[in-house]
Design goal:
- Helices cover 43% and strands 14% of the residues.
- It is α/β, with parallel strands linked by helices and 273 residues long.
- The protein has one domain: 2-enoyl-CoA Hydratase, Chain A, domain 1 (Alpha-Beta Complex).
- The chain is globular and about 60 Å long.
- A six-stranded mixed β-sheet has the order 1-2-3-4-6-9, sandwiched between helices. A three-stranded mixed β-sheet has the order 5-7-8.
- α1 links the parallel β2 (13-18) and β3 (50-55).
- The chain has eleven helices and nine strands.
């Protein structure tokens, strides 16, 4: 569907790969739209049994492309000029009550796919990349993979569902720690926290082995199991709306732009009250 998100389906298992390796698969406009489109196409595909989500090159995903932040210093907005600018507009993923922004859609679509999705993570999963991984049912990584929520380093908050998906997974205290600090942890740390399901030297091979096993099971039982376990930790639609509104208030503010300048210039930021 797109050269920035490659898809191949073999024996019911979809292999989806982020394909901007020159920037460690960092998100740009094309990546957001490609992942939403790929996810939607897989939702509609008959005979699908499992999905493996990974990244080409040196890492899974380095977050939002730094070029987007650099452009902010000259007045370009991070917010796309689309109807998604209205935080009260209903999303188009076809689920009643979900009012999703573009970034939220790029994560949420993997939760809406009826079959299991497993993320195979190597190198790094930072910011938007970590939030994308949260959309999967399971996450495999290497012991040395680097994880960071990261948005605070650019004066932002997670706005792709991360504020709602991370706390149930690792606990509110640990989620707040990672969100507030922006610090980097390793795959070993992530497994101890519960962010990572299991560690492997080759998480992609392990993920495909797991996906093939799932593909051999009763597909109706698997789909129902995914739907029922999702009910155990529901995410409220109004919480996603609140996340999106909060981000729209922060993006482009004086302090957020100062955080971008400070990060790009490797200096201490000078925030106003």
């Amino acid at each position: 569907m797109s050269d920035v998100a490659l898809v191949e389906v073999i024996d019911g298992v979809a292999d989806v790969r982020l394909n901007r390796p020159h920037v460690m698969n960092a998100f740009n406009d094309d990546m957001f739209e490609a992942l939403i489109g790929v996810g939607q196409s897989l939702r509609a595909r008959t005979g699908l049994r499992a999905v493996v989500l990974s990244g080409e090159g040196r890492g899974f995903c380095a977050g939002l492309d730094k070029a987007s932040f650099a452009a902010q210093t000259s007045g370009t907005s991070l917010v796309p000029h689309t109807t998604d600018g209205d935080p009260n507009r209903r999303g188009d993923l076809g689920v009643e009550g979900l009012f999703l922004g573009r970034g939220q859609k790029a994560v949420w679509v993997w939760r809406l796919i009826e079959v299991p999705v497993i993320a195979a993570i190597h190198g790094a999963a930072v910011g938007a990349g970590l939030q994308l991984a949260l959309g999967a049912d399971l996450r495999y990584a290497t012991p040395t993979t680097k994880f960071a929520v990261g948005e605070i380093n650019w004066g932002l908050i997670p706005d792709m569902g991360g504020t709602q998906l991370l706390p149930p997974l690792i606990g509110v205290d640990h989620a707040r720690d990672l969100i507030y600090s922006g610090r980097t942890i390793t795959g070993d740390d992530a497994e101890r926290l519960g962010l990572v399901t299991a560690l492997f030297e080759d998480p992609l091979a392990a993920a495909h082995d797991w996906a093939r096993t799932v593909a051999s099971r009763n597909p109706h039982a698997i789909r129902n199991a995914k739907a029922l376990t999702a009910l155990a930790q529901p995410v409220r639609a109004e919480a996603l709306v609140a996340e999106r509104k909060a981000m729209r208030q922060i993006i482009g503010s004086e302090n957020q732009i100062e955080a971008v300048h400070a990060n790009l210039e490797s200096r201490v930021p000078r925030f106003t009250q």
